[in-house]
Amino acid sequence: MDQPLVFGKFDHLVGIENIVKSDHSLAMIMMTPGMLHNTGPFRMHVDIAQSLEKQGISSLRFDLSGIGESLGIGASGKSIDRAASEASEAMDYLMQTHGIKQFILFGLCSGADDSIQTALKDKRVRGVITLDGAAYKTPKFFLRESVLMARKMLSVNKWINKLRRATGNDKAPPSLAMGTDIREFPETAEQACKELQQLVDSDVRLHFIYTGGTDYYNYARQFYDMLPQMKWRGTESTEYFSHMDHVVMLCEDRKLLVNHVTDKTLEMSGAIAA
Amino acid sequence: MAISTPTRPATERKQTRSLADHVLPRNDLEKKLASIWLEFLTTNEISIHSDFFALGGSSLLAVGIVSRISDEFDLDLPVRDFFANPTITTQARHIKQLLDLNTVEQDEKDNPDQESIDLRNRLPLIKPAYFNCQTERLFGIHYKPRAHQKLKSHAVLVCHPLGHEYARSYRNLQQFSLQLAQAGFDTFRFDYAGTGNSSGKSEGAESNTYFQNIKTAAQYIRRQSHAETLSVIAVRMGAPLVVKADVDEIENLILWDPVVKGSSFIRLMHEFHHAALSRLERYRVKRLSSDPQQLFGFAISKSQEASLNRLKMPDFKTADLTSLNATNRILVTSESYLDNEPGAMSLTEHCQHYSTNDEIQWHDRLYTESAFSSPQAFKVMMNVLKGEQ
Q: Is residue B12 scored above 60 in pLDDT?
């Protein structure tokens, strides 16, 4: 059952825990997805927590400082390091309060980047599931992208949009113009390899999910193509849901994703216990 | 949620004093940061301990400042770094770390933990909780003023919008709740059944469920705060729900860009949903309308849709609803709201109307994922609640 909590060094972090009484061996922590609060887009994290609860797995979802209900109080450090540090505070809380010592992290968007960073820094993380995490473009990506672009050019809406842009009819008011934020991918694929290799060598279970909703990933094998130097040990897996958008808006997509994350968590949980 | 670029609030500059000790910038970095902040805020002077959001800052203004800081210091500064470091002193410390500056100055001898503790102590207490309403557990969060924050024995209940507008307004309402609590108001926000962190299925609630949720939330915050007075801020679909919920003894009933007819709102959601599936912007391939029945991200049952379609603002002259007996009925509207919300003009005859230049654009599909900035609405509502408007 969901319970709210305030935790952290300065009582500034807010989260919701769902603790299953029968098993305190492992829990999932859901990282803050971008600038959205702890429910996730369209309540994705709430659905995942309920699905995990049915399978006997505890979870915690929380807001990083300055996002959602958690307060920005000057917890310093580079953004991604601070996120990792706050995730460790969440683990400290679950360990001290419920005796849970092993964790699987789930993260969408920047939450994916934060999950990997946390796993690199905190040995209690035994598994990571990312959704639209870091990726690097490959020659095949560019080839497929050009085909997709050609197909889009046949769309009437595409031309209407172009016309709107040309005539200035879609000019956003300054206060609502879409902004961009910085994703903190490792600077190069080589650096990403180094970090992932460290996790693989530490026997951290990894599952990488991508959707068709990003502009940097467009085919199922791209993950392996972009990291050719990796020495995998069969403890990783990947899935590409080409039909989904980045925030998984449709209910049927969300159901598929929630079931998929639940299955992967159970699989990881079994492997970690063994 | 996308964060948008900033606009400077079109209000005149004013002198702002924080409850915190007023300390002027102490070194070149703090002075530079303060000067950048001043380009975006409507204040003349900034204490290094003042919270950006308490000075009238918004997410959108933060994006502009982040961009200026990034250019000025030639560094990559994610927006969330700004949210985590919302004072000049914490931001300066953070930037020093990023730039790896090692010069020992007076402020660096300060204890960083103590600065965070001081900042935390200036912010209100946060008390998240679940409370029962019929068969569901509703999640709410009480922003409780600290003893030094001029307690007013006045609680404010904030009623969120529905659907994607809930996510659009989330950060905005959280920030305003913090400001209200710092001004001494016990402030309470909650999630309706089947929304946010509350229990229940999205398609399980009907209008009557939401009415009961609001009544129960009002009772809850009255009980928790022991406040003598209750005001309600209701945003978009929150407005007709609050009016019909029949909450008694409301001091200020503030309707912020209210949905006047539920049927118009539902029609708009259908348009957004259809556009999302058919235009090749969200998806790489066209998606068909799908099973289960859903509306722009959330499952919706036929009976739920019918009940929301029937919901509308009552005739204020003839309706016998205790919510409408509020001491003050306030209508706050954003730019172009009155032009786009069917039936909204009639509300201006029955409420004190404050029109603002805040740009939210609820009716435009281009902004369905945009956070927004509403400095003027914040100012109007704060003044109304303080009895200064």
A: no
B contact residues 297-316, partner A, Cβ 8 Å cutoff: 297-299
The pairing of strands A13-18 and A2-7 is antiparallel
For chain B, give every domain's residue range. 28-122, 125-386
Residue B236 makes CB contacts below 8 A (sequence gap 6+) with: B161, B162, B165, B169, B256, B257, B258, B259, B265, B362
Q: Smallest CA–CA separation between A131 and chain B, in Å? A: 16
pLDDT of residue B10: 40
What's the token pair of residue A10? 């300065």
Residue pLDDT, tens place only, B140-191: 999 999 887 777 799 999 999 999 999 999 988 998 999 899 899 999 999 9
ipTM reported for the complex, 2 dp = 0.89
What's the CATH number of domain A2-273, 2.60.40.1930, 3.40.50.1820, 2.40.290.10, 3.90.230.10?
A: 3.40.50.1820
Q: Inter-axis angle of helices B238-245 and B207-225, to 10 degrees?
A: 80
- A35–B298 C-beta distance less than 8 A: no
Per-domain residue ranges for chain A? 2-273
Residue B319 near chain A (CB below 8 Å): no
- Is residue B265 less than 8 Å (CB to CB) from chain A? no
CATH architecture for segment(s) B28-122? Orthogonal Bundle (1.10)
B201 and A CB contact within 8 Å: no
Structure tokens, A88:
């460790």
The radius of gyration of chain A from alpha carbons, rounded to an integer in Å, stands at 19
| A157/B contact by beta carbon, under 8 A | yes
- Cα distances (angstroms) measured from residue A258 to each of A52, A74, A241, A264, B112: 9, 34, 13, 10, 41
Instruction: List the 180-239 stretch of A: residues with Cβ below 8 A of B.
Output: 181-182, 184, 212-213, 218
**Cross-chain Cβ contact B372/A175 below 8 Å:** yes
When pLDDT is averaged across residues A81-105 and rounded to a whole number, the result is: 94
pLDDT tens-digit map of A17-54:
999 987 778 999 999 988 889 999 999 999 999 999 99
Question: CB distance A242–B284 less than 8 Å?
Answer: yes
CA distance A251 to chain B (A): 7
Confidence of residue B288 (pLDDT cuts 50, 70, 90): confident
CA of B60: which chain A residue's CA is closest? A175
Highest averaged pLDDT of the listed ranges A163-167, A269-273, B6-10, B149-153:
A269-273
Mean pLDDT along residues A57-80: 88
Alpha carbon distance A39, A147 (integer Å) = 36
> Does A156 lie at the interface with B, CB-CB under 8 angstroms?
no
